[in-house]
Amino acid sequence: MTPRPSESSTQHLAVPAEVTPLHEAGIEVIADGGIEWHLDASFLQSNWTCIWGRGCKGILDHPAEDLGQGCCSVGAELVDDEAATTAMLAGYLDAESFQFYEAARSGGVFSDDTKSNTRVIDGACIFLNRPDFPGGAGCALHLAAEVAEESALDWKPSVCWQLPVRVQWEMQETGVEIAHLRAWQRGDWGDDGDSMAWCCTEEPEAYVGDRQVIESLAEELEEILGTTVFVEIQRRMNSVEVHGEPL
Ligand code: SF4
To answer: Could you tell me which InterPro entries the record lists for this protein (predicted)?
Structure first.
């Protein structure tokens, strides 16, 4: 997956949520201690779904569904202690489940000594098994998590499981920090976004899920928001106020 700013990292707050009865322009506001979450209700109630392997055209400068790279073309940015965790988990992978096992053994899984990004090999993240790999296409870490019957959130770098959720932090003079949670947009990819041929959250192809994002990405959203805020936004999503129709 692509590098994303570290401000999108998971937040855990022990302070009980204080509900602010304010929502404007489709934004639900929930205060939680020193953080005020501004949540894009339209995205959370949309039926966006990841269509990797089912029509995803990737993030290159040309549509490339056949490559099966999804948003893994530029490797993953690692924050906090993720480099150590990623290296440790890579040690559990074998040649049957990890296409670039030998390359990892000889050259490591990081792009350089800073260990701030996963290595790109053959045009995509070293952990991305390609479509023809007998051990299974897709993220080798994700696949290993499934085999271990563990959450992929515990195996993959945070930037990988957070997409397409984007969090932008904005510190106020009052000391309150606003966290804007919304769908990833082309502009969030920086200069790379200008040349991207396709951006899944801005195209109709990916709005084909059978559930709303608040449900399909429940695990990811709870990890990002913390349980208290997640439960509150879930409650609002199910309320008359948000849907605008009786239950
Ligand atoms: S999140 Fe979007 S770009 Fe990434 S694999 Fe899924 S559909 Fe493709």
So the answer is: Rv0495c (IPR021458)
